[in-house]
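hey can u run this one w/ adenosine monophosphate bound, need the structure tokens asap thx
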Amino acid sequence: MYTGLAMSCLFCKIVDGTISSTAVYQDELCYAFADLHPQAPVHILIVPREHIDSMMEADQSKGALLGHLLWVAAEIARAKQLGKGYRIVINTGPDGGQTVDHLHLHLLGGRPLTWPPG
Ligand code: AMP
Ligand code: ZN
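ok here u go:
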């Protein structure tokens, strides 16, 4: 069931199965799936089931949800045996490189990652 701007949201459609994806983890609050264009051997997106445009719309009321998303990312990293390290990224807004306006965490790992990012 979509409301407002979420009607046309790619990740809302992935969450509800309208658009197919490769599931990695799911629970009542979030859905995690393989990135279509992986930038590392492990590249997984973790998205809240609830539509939130970006971190710019995430106020204190979303704190528990955001904490849960971070925990899920760390759990997936453990399951994928990323003991040598990994990166969790939240691109935010045009300058942050966000291309899909539904808040999401990238979990990247499986190779050494360079810093700083571009
Ligand atoms: P961002 O640039 O941070 O907004 O990240 C959006 C990510 O979504 C990119 O890494 C894309 O490769 C990924 N993406 C776009 N469409 C799909 C899709 N249909 N299934 C899985 N990942 C996707
Ligand atoms: Zn959405």
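The first helix runs from residue 10 to 15. anyway lmk if its weird
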